[in-house]
Amino acid sequence: MVSAVGGIIGLLLGIAIGSAASSVFGVPPVISPTTTVGAVLFAMAIGVIFGLYPANKAAKLDPIDALRYE
Questions:
Q1: How many whole angstroms separate alpha carbon 2 and alpha carbon 40?
Q2: CA 50, CA 60: separation in Å to the nearest integer?
Q3: Which pLDDT belongs to residue 70?
Q4: Could you give the 3-state DSSP secondary structure of residue 49?
Q5: 14-23: long-range contacts, CB 8 A cutoff, minimum separation 24
Q6: 36: phi > 0 → left, psi -120 to 50 → alpha, else beta; which?
Q7: How many CB atoms sit inside 10 A of residue 7's CB?
Q8: Cα distance between residue 17 and residue 36, in whole Å
Q9: Does the pLDDT of residue 69 top 70, yes or no?
Q10: The pLDDT value given to residue 65
Q11: Is 31 helix (H, G, I), strand (E, B) or coil?
Q12: Nearest-CA neighbor of 6 among 34, 44, 37?
């Protein structure tokens, strides 16, 4: 969920900055629906991958050893 919200915020910021830059340079902005969906899905995938790796690593530890390691 956090990755999805972050991806959407990044997408909105990218659209806003791209629109501002295109108005400065006089070029029409081009926003592709495929690219926007792909960007949000990529952000979500990165969040899931980097969230599952530490969780799996922690789940394989013995609770006593995990608490002793400080």
A1: 11
A2: 16
A3: 58
A4: helix
A5: 14/39
A6: alpha
A7: 20
A8: 14
A9: no
A10: 75
A11: coil
A12: 44
For the chain, report the end-to-end CA distance as a whole number of angstroms: 30
Instruction: Note the pLDDT tens digit of each residue in 9-60.
Output: 999 999 999 999 999 999 998 889 999 999 999 999 999 999 999 889 888 8
Q: Tell me the three state secondary structure of residue 60.
A: coil
Helices 33-59 and 2-25 cross at an angle (nearest 10°) of: 150
For residue 68, what pLDDT band results from cuts at 50, 70 and 90?
confident
Tokens of 6: 């972050």
Closest Cα partner for 33 from 22, 41, 44?
Answer: 41
Contact 11, 44 (CB under 8 A): no
Q: How confident is the model at residue 66 (pLDDT cuts 50, 70, 90)?
A: confident
Would you say how long the chain is, in residues? 70
